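pasting for the record
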Amino acid sequence: MRARKIARPTTLSDVARLAGVSPATASKALNGRDEVAPATRQRVIDAAERLAFSPNQLAKGLFAGRTGTVGLLTSDLEGRFVIPILMGAEDAFGAGQVNAFLCDARGDEIREQHHLRALLSRRIDGLIVVGRQTDPRPSLGHDLGVPVVYAYAPSDDETDLSITPDNVEAGRMAAEHLISLGRTRIAQISGDRSYAAARDRVTGANQAFKAAGLTPVGDVMFGDWSETWGRDAAAAMLAQHPEIDAVLCGSDQISRGVLDHLRDIGRSVPHDVAVMGFDNWLVLTTNARPQLSSIDANLKQLGRTAAERVFAALDGEDIGTGIELTPPRLVIRGSTVARLG
């Protein structure tokens, strides 16, 4: 009896190859994401129709013969940066298509190892490790038997794949915004110097100042990630340099403190002094007086990207190694521009 050849099910990679795009772009196009150009989206849809592939096949194809579960291992579930990353990853999983097991190690290495063993015992197909800050964290190694992607906090092993915000570009973008408004006497107040995010944002800002032929006013003031520090640092900075016409802050919390002090001393924002923040924490930025301009790290997109890389690895693709940076987004509000719209 002649053996019958069983056809391999069509995968997202097949659709991407036929459409001439990357699997990530094909996924975005089929899921209606607005980052894809209309012509590209239509090309992907046409390819999917030719191959009789539907978006719902994505999860089915990826997890054929597997458990259809992905582990999410975080070290700080209460942190405000972790939640949007997890939400972005969940968006990529799709409602009901992929199950996620979430574990919070609370910053404890022993607890993290316990959760890791528990996740592997459930035969997860992939793992996303979400850190609490953008400083490198220890790698979990390469003998877990499942693809691992690190999100926000990069692995200290360059042979792992890590997805993390581009804080240098964020700093450059923030400084360029202030410079574009004609501000030339710009001071910097940031958070804890030991944090990579604080140092990277200052690095990017200084690159923008140098390119514009400007020298920042005074030295960068590093301190806490708090409104109290923002108030105290602004008082010290402005007492020494009353000519300041803009303050670039390392976080939205710090910016709120700077706004408080400027209000207390009768300096108008943004007419006298423009104030710029980071993180676009809406509870702070939209309730500030005036509302606060800020740099958004696109953390939901970061989470989606991490999940897409896990999917790609499960589909047999080489997802690469090293650090992949996600671009920031400038959000302009009243603390830098007096009239909007």
